[in-house]
Amino acid sequence: MNLKKSVGIAVVLGIAFIAIWELYVRSLGYVSELDDNKALWAIQRAKVDKLSSDDIVLLGSSRVHFDIQLNEWEEATGVRPIMLASDGTTPTPIFKEIVEETDFNGTVVIGVAPALFFSQPGKGFMWDRPTKRLRHYYEQTYAQRANHYLSLPLERTFSFLNASEEEWSDDIDLKTLVNNIKIGNRLPEGRPPFNNFGFVDADRNVTMFEKTKTDTAFANGIVKIWLGGIERRPTPVVDSVILYYQPLIEKLKKRGGNAIFIRCPSSGKLREKENEIYSRTVCWDELLLQSGLNGYHFEDYTQLNQFTCPEESHLFSTDARIFTKELVKILLEDQQISNLKTR
Amino acid sequence: MLFNSLSFVVFLIVVLALYYSKILSWTGKKRMLLLSSYVFYGMWNPPLVILLWISTVVDWTAGKKLATLENKKKRKLWLLLSMVVNLGFLGFFKYGNFLLENFTAILQSIGIEYEALPMDIILPMGISFYTFQTMSYTIDMYYRKGERARTFLDFALYVTFFPQLVAGPIVRAKDLITQFYEPKKATIHQFLWGLFLLTIGVFQKVVLADALLSSTSDKVFDAGKLLHGVDAWIGTLAFSGQIFFDFAGYSTCAIGIALMLGIILPDNFRYPYASIGFSDLWRRWHISLSSWLRDYLYIPLGGNRHGITRMYVALMLTMLLGGLWHGAAWTFVIWGALHGIYLVGERLLKKLIPIKINAWNGIFLAFLTYTLVNITWVFFRAKGFATANDMITSMFFLNPDGSKILGIAEIGKVVIVITGLFLCHWFMRNTSMKEVSLKTPSWVLGVGWAVLFFLICLAQGSGEQFIYFQF
Q: Where is this protein chiefly located (chain B) (predicted)?
């Protein structure tokens, strides 16, 4: 056995295999992108501890994540918000943590995606996911931090590095590829494939994939997930959620901070379902009334209500930019946020 | 720091560069290895390096005294000090919560209302491994079985040597410290073979354990409902493969990394799923722990020197404590107890039915052993007795209405991997990877190596922790 010869063959072939695989996945339309994982989130969370009263923290689910564009916000106000919205989550545990564990006295913008927001505090995946991120923020080891920083340049370079914490159906890591194989019908039909439809940059600003707008079949696949999800949700929990927020809002205001609720657009059948299950008077209006906070519902402003979401739940990036600019204008007019550019 | 992480790749490159540079003397290299080992451990939780320091200083001092003192009483006291410190750490950090829970349960069972505040104790990574390693040194010193470490640096490096620090192999002082006395340098063949072992180990962990088996095992054991017998079996088989690839993968990485430094660590696994019987199993599974338990627990408890009954008691006690070593829960004790019962049963059966092993009955008996081992894995993996009970009844097909949660493809995946694992162990049981590689053409090994590397990249492991870190 000549190990020098073996290692030589292994290096050459190993690089060749990777190169062929990389070219193949690129030919399928995959691009190099960052994983919007707990480590990326934790970096943004760490920034909250150093913010001033002029700063903005964005909380919520994927709607805030997709619909609010950080560049446009910064361009209009001179302040780059911290994006802490996480897909498929309620903002409540993060808001609680920011109020109770930090001295932040700026403005917290809280996105209200009804099906996720009006859910029982402390229960369900919408609560567990942000809690896991918080736990990671507090418990991450130096090794985990180092691994994350080392992985960033690789993720930015190679399209085949596509495994995500979200576990999208179209991830191309070995586990997903194997788990996607379906044979026979031993199990009833499960959830339809849930494919990734956007990518994040280092500060978690999201850009929706072009194909979400151009490929109707792709978009309809995602719509199926939203509609299936909303059908399975339990009855809205309004009073408990509001009660949960009240002392937190009071505490934040006492130290000079502010919070604003926003309701980002939805379209089509999903919007119909949302309005039917989470009626505005019972949920949104009651939230504003009892919390005493200002809220901005897209339906109340023509400039915010001019968009159609390609997959019924999130704005396409060009629309998201316009939406952000218009929302910021409204918030500035109402003196809810500061404009450092004109100060 | 995990072997299957990017930070470890950078760490290893820096360590190897310094180790093979000409700027450091041998003592300088050992200091660098020691410092690197503390960095390796501290990257997880820096304050807990202090525990390593305390263990090191206490056992170094105890070892020194035990080697020089003649007074029996004083020698006993030094041994006792070492035991108290090491077992005290282990008891507090690993069993603190468990003891408190059981204390509370006992009080409540006799009608005393008592609620203890949770202690929130962090379990220091690998504490069971390094405390057993340092304890073996002082016990050997007490029985004058070995030579004491020549320098504090050699001893500190023995306690902390990063390749095997957090999950073994648990190495005896005579096998490792002596290697630190003279300058060590891997030959090119050793270095490349070490690199190959590292690749195999990472492949076992990232591809086989994490990418192919863990999700099935997690799905089954976390199902929270009664399962169909097939699903329960497949989940258990998946776990049997996962834990083997996870732990053997770590040991293979450790042996490979040490070899790249020119240091030889002993084998920790020898194709255990092809064991014929349970005595054979424990000579093949986690060899460094089973030999530790044999030498420092089973033999001191009397071993086979005081009659059959005493031997069985010693065997059972050893296995029960071995179970508890793996985790602070009664399910682990049951796991140990089952292995104890298997060992006792096997010895009794051997007396009654002498069997001559050949290839035909051998594979059948190996399969039977593996099947019985799978029963024990249920208690090892289940989070509580309720889950274990549900799983066992399902595995005996006593829950015909149990839920089906695995698709045919997933069942097929586990069957293919586990059949491959079992056959591989069977065909390798009397040989070694080294021997097989010597007969393999270089180009075949090269192609295989490239495939392993490609699959590791394709798996994109997110740095999942090794199961045995929690022990």
A: membrane
